[in-house]
User: Which sequence fits this backbone?
């Protein structure tokens, strides 16, 4: 397993959001969120977890509401860890800077606070997150555990 830092400036594909567990109520607690960042012709598979998963969901939800469809994109600068093993590479998001309007930012931040306080979930918003056909590799879970400061599950 090899890890390196990565910076991606591109667009979060609004249609690409996926969860690995059904009935994800809060998007935290061992439920990484999968999405794709387009940079030029390349689409990078990315995983986010804990609060960052909530942030990604909220910004994506607000941007979808604003555009009215899933074909749109949301410009971002993402810093993460590139986790590669064999011929497979995954990006584990560490931070995201959102290049969007103040209106989307304001509504998304309100939504994030409501999620964190437990006032709302995807279900209460009437949103069903699609299931991912991919699951994170053991190395992604190990990196998440390391970032959380707990013993690895592998």
Assistant:
């Amino acid at each position: 397993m090899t890890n390196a830092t990565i910076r991606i400036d591109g667009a979060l594909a609004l249609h690409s959001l996926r969860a690995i567990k059904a009935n994800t109520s809060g998007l935290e607690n061992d439920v990484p969120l999968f999405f794709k960042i387009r940079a030029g012709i390349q689409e990078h598979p990315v995983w986010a977890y804990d609060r960052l998963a909530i942030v990604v969901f909220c910004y994506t939800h607000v941007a979808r509401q604003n555009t009215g469809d899933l074909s749109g994109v949301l410009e971002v600068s993402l810093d993460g860890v590139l986790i590669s093993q064999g011929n497979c590479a995954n990006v584990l998001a560490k931070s995201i800077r959102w290049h969007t309007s103040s209106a989307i930012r304001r509504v998304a931040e309100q939504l994030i606070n409501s999620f964190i306080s437990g006032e709302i979930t995807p279900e209460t918003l009437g949103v069903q997150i699609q299931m991912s056909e991919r699951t994170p590799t053991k190395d992604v879970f190990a990196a998440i555990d390391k970032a959380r400061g707990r013993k690895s599950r592998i």
